[in-house]
# Entry
Amino acid sequence: MSNLLNPCKYSFNDLIKASNFQISTEDLYNMSQKERNKYVKNMCNKAKWFFEDVIGNDNITYTSFSPYLKTKQNVLSKNFECENM
# Structure
């Protein structure tokens, strides 16, 4: 079970904007999945977003991401800037 809140709600464009990385979604899609996962983790670190690896139904590892974590107290955000995106 994921600790991320609504990871499917956020796109690569959201993460690129939050991290201020100079990369296009096309560049990300042209990478291998392993390389894309590494890039996503770097962007998350810069944007102060959360990430975790998940195994898809196709048995491939994907890195999911969100600016929010699930908590008992509702939601914890590390990146208040993303709320104004």
